[in-house]
Amino acid sequence: MIVFPQAKINLGLNILSKRADGFHNLQSVFLSVNLYDALEVIIDKNIPFGEMVFSTSGVPIPGDQKNNLILKAAHLYNELVSLPGIRIHLHKNIPMGAGMGGGSSNGAWMLRLLNRLMDNALNTNQLFSLATQLGSDCPFFLYDSPCYVTGRGEVLEPIALDLKGWNLVLINPGIHISTAEAFRMIQPIPNTTNLKTIVSGPIELWNRNLYNDFEKPACLKYVEIKDALSLFKQFGASYSAMTGTGSTVFGLFEVMPNLPNLPDHWFVHSSKF
Question: What is the value of pTM for the model shown?
Answer without folding.
Answer: 0.95
